[in-house]
Amino acid sequence: MKLANIQSLVAIKSYSGYLTIDEKTNSNLFFWFFPSQKTPEQDPVILWINQAPGYSSLQGIFVETGPFHVDSESTVTPRNFSWTKSHSMLYIDSPVGTGFSFTDSPEAYANGFDEDGAELCEALKQFFTIFKEFQDREFYLAGEDYAAVFIPSIIKTIEAENAKGGLKINLKGFMVGSPYMDSKQVHNAQTLYNFGLIDKKQKAIMDGQIEKAFKMIENGQAKEGEQLALSISYGPNSLLAKFTGFQDYSNALASKPRPEIAWRYF
């Protein structure tokens, strides 16, 4: 694949297309694969997982680990510190219905991590069948945030499929940045207080709202509790923004999220 309007002195090889995971429902997962720019014949293959299921892999390609960078003006340039410089990177829009992935049947949409993991595992088996020269490379899963919850489910499915025989995925491990493990981990006023971003009175207000949100969720008011929790830490009108001026909860070094990812916070 060759992309237009990208000024680069180095040719970046890539392959893109669809992997049909269910012919009956015409369910297809979109993938974009970038062989390592260094030594693809020996460098590991990494599948990048973008946060929770439903996030398009294009975010990883153009904003995080891929070979391209897109700014707030939609200008695309080569990324100086891309993972593709030393690893073969695979990006898949998963599950079906995410990004460019599609199906002809609403019944094919995944209902939980197990079904999503099964879709990805089937896609990976097809990928390594098509790109058989990469079958013996070390394979890793990597991601950020909520991917820490999802990746173990994928690993469990891969290991179960490997045990059945046939094509085996050479799974070696996984890595997660800023892992999301528990909701209370995210909504923690103590951290803001420790950084000196809020005072004791503000901490008490945030603690009270956080406790209220979790009680609502525990009592079956999941939607209302989630909205209250989000209003504490995300967006220009959140308690975080009002007390500290920060609109980006994930970075203590930046008061506002980068323009190209700001949509996640509003």
In brief, what are we looking at here?
This is Serine carboxypeptidase. This protein has 266 residues and is α/β, with parallel strands linked by helices.
Mean pLDDT: 87
Low confidence ranges: none
Structural class estimated from helices and strands: alpha/beta
Largest beta sheet: strand ordering: 1-2-6-3-7-8
**What integer value in Å does the Rg equal?**
21 Å
Element order, helices and strands? EEEHEEEHEHEHHHHH
Helix content range of the residues, please?
25-40%
Q: Span from first to last CA?
A: 34 Å
What is the 3D shape? globular
Number of helices: 8
Please report which band the strand proportion falls in: under 5%, 5-15%, 15-25%, 25-35%, 35-45% or over 45%: 15-25%
Largest sheet: 6 strands, mixed
Number of strands: 8
List the helices and strands and how they pair.
Elements: E1 15-22, E2 27-34, E3 45-49, H1 58-64, E4 68-70, E5 76-78, E6 88-92, H2 113-130, E7 139-144, H3 147-163, E8 171-177, H4 183-186, H5 189-194, H6 200-218, H7 222-233, H8 239-244
Parallel strand pairs: 3-6, 3-7, 7-8
Antiparallel strand pairs: 1-2, 2-6, 4-5
Helix pairs in contact: 2-3, 6-7
